[in-house]
Structure formats: C-alpha cells, structure tokens
C-alpha cells in the first residue's frame, strides 16, 4: 500500500525540477553579446570591463534548485512505500 500524498508531492517536485533545470541551463549558455565580448578579449588580449560580462550566478542557482527539487521528489516517491501502515500489524493494545 502506497501513501498517495507522498507520491503526489514527489511527482510535483520532480515536475517543478525539470523547468528549473532548463531555465538554469539556458542562463548558463553564452549570449551573442557574451560571444562578442569574448572575441574582443581574445583579439585585444585585455580583460573586458565587468559591466560587459554576464553573471552566471542565477543560472547556477536555478540548476541547484532543480537538482534539489528532483532529489527531494525522488526521495518522497521512494519513501512512500516504507511509510505505509497495516492496521493488522499494530502492537498497541495487544498483550
């Protein structure tokens, strides 16, 4: 017997993890501006100013959130089987 609530929460977390991971992956991909800045850095041999570079922190945060949601959802789904209770196996009140 499975606990439907834990399976439902696990499925929701896994479903939320997929778009989070996709958004994080897309944010980590270089944009056309980033490619142009990289090309200019290679041609000139100098570092570009920080305001021209894009931060990848948000991309890593989305990927981390997606991984945590996926692992949490998987844990909920797998633990739903262990947390079932059979009414006939209770030792309370038996002597």
- Shape, principal axes of CA atoms: rod-shaped
Biggest pleated sheet: none
Q: Evaluate the radius of gyration.
A: 24 Å
The number of domains: 1
Which whole number gives the mean pLDDT? Answer: 82
Notable characteristics:
95 residues, single chain
Please tell me about this protein's structure:
It contains 3 helices and no strands. With 95 residues, it is mainly alpha-helical. The protein has one domain. The chain is rod-shaped. The two termini are 27 Å apart. The model has no long low-confidence stretch (mean pLDDT 82).
Summary?
This protein has helices at 4-28, 32-44, 57-79. The chain has 95 residues and is mostly helical.
Task: Compile the SSE list and pairings.
Layout: H1 4-28, H2 32-44, H3 57-79
Helix pairs in contact: 1-3
């Amino acid at each position: 017997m499975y606990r439907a609530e834990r399976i439902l929460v696990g499925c929701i977390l896994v479903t939320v993890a997929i778009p989070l991971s996709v958004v994080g992956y897309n944010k980590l991909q270089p944009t056309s501006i980033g490619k142009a800045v990289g090309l200019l850095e290679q041609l000139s041999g100098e570092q570009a100013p920080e305001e021209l570079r894009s931060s990848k922190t948000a991309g890593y945060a989305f990927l981390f959130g997606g991984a945590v949601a996926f692992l949490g959802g998987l844990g909920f789904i797998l633990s739903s089987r262990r947390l079932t209770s059979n009414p006939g196996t209770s030792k309370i009140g038996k002597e």
